[in-house]
Design goal:
Elements: H1 3-13, H2 39-48, H3 51-55, H4 74-92, H5 96-105, H6 114-124, H7 133-144, H8 158-165, H9 188-212, H10 217-220, H11 224-236, H12 242-271, H13 292-310, H14 313-335, H15 342-345, H16 348-351, H17 353-362, H18 366-377
Helix pairs in contact: 2-5, 4-5, 4-9, 4-12, 5-8, 5-9, 6-14, 8-9, 9-12, 11-12, 14-17, 14-18
Length: 383
């Protein structure tokens, strides 16, 4: 479909409050438009083809990579967030291409070993500007990816970059950068990805927790949201096997939350009189949100996940080991930066050894970090 037809489609199908590609603030480095793809479609494809996106395959969600092939990774999580977000965007007539690009990019700045990696790098970088995975994600797409001869990074559109910086959830903190107007609410597409992220990790971490045996189905009885879906499944399928029932419950939990989010958001759009995307600058409230009823249903189960899964002693052990690996790698590279690969080491004079080492470690997969640790500290390991 020629670009002109795509833009006609956006104008006829998308809601007035959606972010249309023709209204984009553009890129830092000016490029000619593509004949068949909007700026957001090109952003999505650049993200998918980036090295940072591929490395998400071997970065931890909750369970370290070698714990099992069936657990979520940052890559599978990002794909699940994208699918949930696209469904909601379609229902609300938001820009699905922009939504998908932000969803696929939202974890590009994550370290190996999940949030444990971010915590230890934040401590190690406290005297040098700190570490935040949203900022690191922006650094990845603006600078660290090396693919084009005319500019550094991926040269993404302003709206996708804003979506990376302003991504916020229970585990993510939006950061203040003057370029992105910290006091203004982001696009509805960015707000949508924030909530799709929560829906995805709540329910899929629950699934992984049950698969791992760290939590049991009996532990979930008494949570109204779980019992509500469980009753429906048991009424329809009296003799279903446990694995299929678990899958159907997880699917039902996601569907319940997505449906409620769509309905409540439509109510919020009418309540706050959001008639065009620029109206968001005047509104200091999130528009994409759940109803109070579903918030109340979600809260106890989310608290349970925090106490019984994320703080389970085996997960804590994994996190503690991960922090030790990263801390020792960081200190050793800073002590002897000549051990860094040549293409990494050349940046030290300009950016400082600690920031270069931080970038290098943040870009590692779990597997690569473990291999580097063995090469540096195991005398019998080939280097």
């Amino acid at each position: 479909m020629p670009l002109g037809n795509i833009k006609m489609f956006e104008n006829s199908f998308l809601a007035p409050y959606a972010m249309k590609s023709c209204n984009s603030r553009g890129r830092v480095h000016i490029e000619d438009e593509h004949a068949y793809r909007t700026c957001y479609q090109r952003d999505r494809d650049r993200i998918i083809h980036s090295a940072a996106f591929r490395r998400l395959e071997y970065k931890t969600q909750v369970f370290v990579n070698h714990e099992g092939d069936y657990y979520r990774t940052r890559l599978t999580h990002s794909l699940e967030v994208s699918q949930i977000a696209r469904t909601i965007a379609y229902a609300l007539k938001l820009n699905m291409d922009l939504t998908e690009a932000i969803a696929l990019a939202h974890d590009l700045g994550h370290t190996p070993f999940g949030h444990a990696g971010e915590e230890v790098l934040s401590e190690l970088m406290a005297s040098c500007g700190g570490f935040n995975h949203n900022l690191q994600g922006l650094r990845v797409v603006d600078y660290l990816e090396e693919r084009y001869p005319d500019f550094p990074g991926l040269n993404l559109s302003w709206e996708v970059r804003e979506g990376i910086v302003k991504h916020s959830s229970a585990f993510d903190i939006a950061v203040s950068i003057k370029e992105f107007h910290p006091r203004q609410m982001p696009t509805l597409e960015t707000q949508l990805v924030d909530v799709a992220d929560e829906i995805a990790y709540d329910n899929h971490d629950l699934d992984d927790g049950l698969t791992s045996g760290l939590i049991k189905e009996e532990d979930l009885k008494g949570f109204e949201i779980w019992d509500k879906i469980n009753r429906k499944i048991n009424q329809k399928y009296a003799k279903i096997d446990p694995n299929r029932r678990k899958y159907l419950i997880i699917r039902g939990l996601i569907d319940l939350q997505v449906t409620d989010l769509i309905n409540q958001t439509k109510t919020n759009i009418a309540r706050f009189k959001v008639e065009k995307y620029t109206d968001l600058k005047k509104i200091n409230n999130k528009i994409i949100d759940f109803s109070k009823e579903v918030k109340d249903l979600r809260k106890p189960l989310r608290q349970f996940l925090m106490s019984r899964l994320y703080h389970h002693y085996r997960v804590i052990r994994m996190s503690t080991k991960a922090k030790r690996f990263i801390s020792e790698l960081f200190c050793e590279y800073v002590r002897r930066p000549e051990q860094l690969p040549t293409e990494v080491r050349v940046r030290v004079a300009k950016e400082g050894v600690r920031r270069v080492v931080c970038d290098y470690i943040a870009g590692m997969t779990d597997r690569y970090a473990l291999n580097e640790y063995k090469k540096l500290f195991n005398p019998y390991e080939k280097v």
